[in-house]
Amino acid sequence: MRFGFWGCLASVLTFGTSIQACSSETPCDVGGRSYYIAMPENVDRPVPAVVYVHGWGGSGKGALRNSGMVSGFLARGVAVVAPDGVVREGRNGRSWRFHPDSGAQLDDISFLVAVRDDAEGRFDLDPNRMILAGFSIGGSMTAYSACLKPEAFAAYAPLGGNFWRPHPTECAGPVRLLHTHGWTDGTVPLEGRVVNGRSADDPDALVQGDIFHAMSVWRETNQCDNLKADRFDTDGPYWRRIWDRCSPDSALELALFPGGHSIPRSWPDLVVDWFEGL
After folding, report:
1. pLDDT tens digit string along 189-226?
2. Which CATH number fits domain 21-194+203-276: 3.30.70.3040, 3.40.50.1820, 2.60.120.260, 3.40.50.790?
3. Distance from first CA to last CA of the chain, Å, rounded?
4. What is the mean pLDDT of residues 40-55?
5. Strand 86-87 with 79-83, pairing
6. CA distance 212 to 182
7. Which one of 21, 98, 127, 182 is least enclosed by Cβ atoms within 10 Å?
8. Rg, the chain, Cα only
């Protein structure tokens, strides 16, 4: 049978040779939503990966334009998978339905799990070395994913965002979690802030959570023996507080840096070193 050029092309598309055609510039479709991916070169397979959740007003494609962050992970042999959040009605960019009042937390978590599964199959990624990480609201989406579906990813690394008020009273199970935050962050202060409303007591207000309270939730979730950290490390660019005496196979760390609401250039190395050291 003769297919000709277009017949061969149709065959390629049908039988999946082009299944990896999506990239950092071309979206990968998952059930009507999308993600983008940047792959490291010359690495053994399966490949470890970070599924990076962008912040408010961002996008997956836009996240991969942060060359400093992306190149930091790629240099360590780690793929960067960047899903798209939901479109903000009447505004540019995208966001995440992370807040409990959104009524769609589980929908967005299910999408991130679908991205995990799809990227694993398309690009031969290692699900046992796949971290969910995110910045700002993406950090909050990461935290709620860890709380509600801890088994979905091998570890979690929120940056500059965690729970909002009212804080969760409990989570589904122990996790491996590294929270990173800027000491002088004014957009998402360590203590949180009122985003929409007159005060934190306003029942209709949107209020960011307290990072230290979030860490207490994570300590209880991981069944850590002590309130205070078991180890401290201030030798590098981060002030690190580490809880060791917790549930088996869990991990918990808070890393602070002397900066604001930003992604430190050394953050990819921090995340990879932390995960590899578990």
Report:
1. 999 999 987 677 777 789 999 999 999 999 999 999 99
2. 3.40.50.1820
3. 56
4. 96
5. unpaired
6. 13
7. 21
8. 19
Q: Which residues are CB-contacts of 56 (< 8 A; sequence separation ≥ 6)?
A: 93, 95, 136, 137
Q: How far apart are CA 21 and CA 56, in angstroms?
A: 28
The upper half-sphere exposure of residue 79, i.e. CA atoms within 13 Å in the direction of its Cβ, equals 30
Amino acid (1-letter code) at residue 8:
C
Q: What is the pLDDT of residues 129-168, one digit of tens each?
A: 999 999 999 999 999 999 999 999 999 999 999 999 999 9
126 Cβ neighbours under 8 A, 6+ residues apart: 46, 47, 48, 49, 120
User: What tokens does 229 get?
Assistant: 């950290």
Question: pTM of the predicted model, to two decimals?
Answer: 0.91
Average pLDDT over residues 108-122: 98
